[in-house]
Design brief:
293 residues; 12 helices; 12% strand
């Protein structure tokens, strides 16, 4: 494995964003955490449980269309066995989002009944949306609110401040900036975040990162991945990650002067196609077996 694992990422605005989440907690009923279904461990902020304390939490496994379906179901079961409601969704297409509001109402039904008993006729459900950068929060809010006021870009760090959205007469959402945490105790967390684009590519050596990604793909090679680059099983088994990067560049005709292979261009292509879902459904992290299915 390369030396790229030493990824540390905690810009100043992340600290401010964490404070904004803490400040908004007193205004809301439930926290909705959006994570990446391809990397459920790496895309879930380990500080969040401490930050939200006793607030109810609903977890959305976003980008489930790019993850392995069976693995996602194992994660949903794992969360539910640990007392946390979870739903697989795809915020861009809207898949699974029809279950979101009913799930919220079910979670808070006792509270609403108690409010109605006190004479509050139309209690308002207030929800806080949290998640790391580039996990799909803005796409989610656009889908739920049926508007495009939330800026959506395929790069981290777009949403910088808290913003309220009125979804209906009895549902309001508070969007928060994406927050990463001060350090990654497991080097794989930093790598997986970089693979999916949650950490900006420009702070990394893209070729070394691609080598790490190809090492992961050597263990998780899908038929789609092999077909994209016309690779054989022997290529996956016998080549080093750098040799595999060179081979991919060669097969795509990425040559520079003297017949040398442009491995930087090949690395960028690999991540563009992976993040676009062209390698099939890949989940890089599974739940602990003792609690999974």
């Amino acid at each position: 494995m390369s030396e790229i694992q030493n990824i540390q990422w905690f810009p100043g605005h992340m600290t401010k964003a964490k404070r904004k989440i803490q400040a908004g907690l007193k205004l809301i009923d439930v926290v909705v955490e959006i994570i990446d279904a391809r990397i459920p461990v790496s895309s879930s902020n380990p500080d969040l449980a401490q930050i939200i304390e006793n607030k109810p939490k609903l977890v959305l496994f976003n980008k489930c269309d790019k993850a392995d379906k069976n693995a996602t179901q194992k994660w949903v079961n794992y969360y539910q066995k640990n007392g946390i409601k979870a739903l697989p969704v795809d915020c861009k297409s809207g898949r699974g989002l029809n279950k979101f509001i009913p799930a919220l109402r079910e979670m808070l039904s006792d509270k609403f009944e108690a409010q109605k008993a006190k004479g509050i006729k139309n209690p308002i459900l207030r929800v806080m949306i949290v998640g790391i950068p580039n996990v799909g929060k803005s796409s989610f809010i656009n889908r739920i609110s049926k508007q495009t006021r939330a800026k959506v870009e395929d790069r981290p760090g777009v949403t910088r401040g808290n913003q309220w959205y009125t979804i209906s007469n009895d549902l309001e959402m508070l969007d928060t900036p994406g927050v990463l945490w001060p350090k990654f105790d497991d080097e794989k967390v930093g790598l997986h975040l970089a693979f999916t684009g949650a950490v900006k590519d420009r702070v990394l050596d893209i070729e070394l990162l691609a080598m790490d990604f190809l090492e992961a793909m050597q263990k998780n090679a899908t038929p789609e991945f092999l077909a994209r680059f016309k690779l054989k099983e022997d290529d996956i088994k016998n080549l080093s990650s750098y040799e595999l990067l060179e081979l991919i560049g060669k097969k795509r005709g990425m040559l520079i002067s003297g017949g040398e292979i442009d491995t930087e261009r090949a690395a960028n292509l690999i991540f563009d196609e992976y993040r676009d879902g062209k390698f099939g459904n890949i989940t890089l992290e599974l739940p602990p077996e003792k609690n999974g299915d």
